[in-house]
Amino acid sequence: MCLNSGDVLHKRYKIIAQIGRGGFGRTYKAQDLQKSSHPLCAVKEIVAPQSSDANILQEVKKRFNREGESLSRLGTHPQIPELFDYFAENNKFYLIQEYIEGHDLSEEIGTGRLPMNQSDILQLLEDILEVLAFVHQQNLIHRDIKPSNLRRRNSDKKIVLIDFGAVKELNSIAITSEGVINITQAIGTPGYMAPEQQRGNPQLNSDLYALGMICIQALTGLHPRTLPTDPNTGNIIWRYATSDRPMINISPELDHILNKMVGYLFSDRYYSAVEALQELRQLSASGISTLSSKKPAKSKPLFPTINLKCQVWWGVGATLVILGVWRVNQLIPTTCPLIIGDKISCGEESLIKTVTLPEKQEGVKAYANQRYQEAVTWLKKARQKIPTDPEILIYLNNAQLQAEKVPFYTIGVAIPLGNPSDGGDSGQEILRGVAQLQTEVNRNRSIKGYGLRVVLGDDYNETEQAKEIATKLSEQGEILGIIGHYTSENTRAALPIYDLNHLTVISPTSTAESLTEENSRFLRTIPQDSVSAEVLARYLSQVAKKDKVVVFYNPNSAYSRSLHERFLISFDEQNGQVVKQVDLAKPIFDAEAAIRQAQKRGATSLVLFPDAKSNPYAFSNALKVIRANKGRYLIVGGNSLDSTDILQERALSKGIIVTISWHYLGSNNQNFSNFANQLWGSEVSSRTAMAYDAARVLSVGLESQFSLSFKEKIESFFNPIIRRELLYLSLKKPDFQTQGATGEISFELSGNRHEKIVELVKVMPTKCSPYGYLFIPNKFTSAEAAGLKCQ
Question: What is the pTM of this model?
Answer without folding.
Answer: 0.63
